């Protein structure tokens, strides 16, 4: 399937500009969908990319590298 509907956005095949434009128009025409996806995307970003989580992941990677562990 070239595209799928996700809770936080749409997935469109790379280079499929026509489909991407259609999805943008769909969001422009549907305030509720736009708002729902926006809230969902923000929740995901806060959950997976908070300063605390990024710091923890970077520190773990640094320590792993410092110990010479490659896996």
Description:
The structure is a single chain. The chain is built from three helices and two strands; from the N terminus they run E-E-H-H-H. The protein has helices at 17-29, 31-48, 51-66, and strands at 3-6, 9-12. Strands 1-2 form a two-stranded antiparallel ribbon. A hairpin with a 2-residue loop joins strand 1 (3-6) and strand 2. The two termini are 33 Å apart.
Task: Give a topology summary.
Blueprint: E1 3-6, E2 9-12, H1 17-29, H2 31-48, H3 51-66
Antiparallel strand pairs: 1-2
Quick structural summary:
With 71 residues, the chain is mostly helical. The protein has three helices and two strands, in the order ββααα.
- What is the average per-residue confidence, as pLDDT, rounded to a whole number? 87
Helix content: 55-70%
- Work out the number of β strands: 2
- Rg estimate, integer Å: 18 Å
Q: H/E element string?
A: EEHHH
Structural class: mainly alpha
**Biggest sheet strand line-up:** 1-2
Per the principal axes of the C-alpha atoms, what is the gross shape?
A: elongated
Quickly count the helices.
3
Report the span from N to C terminus.
33 Å
């Amino acid at each position: 399937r070239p595209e799928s509907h996700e809770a936080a956005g749409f997935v469109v095949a790379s280079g499929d500009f026509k489909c991407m434009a259609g999805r943008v128009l769909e969001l422009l025409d549907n305030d509720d969908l736009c708002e729902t996806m926006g809230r969902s995307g923000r929740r995901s970003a806060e959950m997976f990319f908070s300063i605390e989580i990024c710091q923890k992941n970077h520190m773990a990677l640094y320590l792993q590298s410092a110990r010479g562990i490659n896996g």
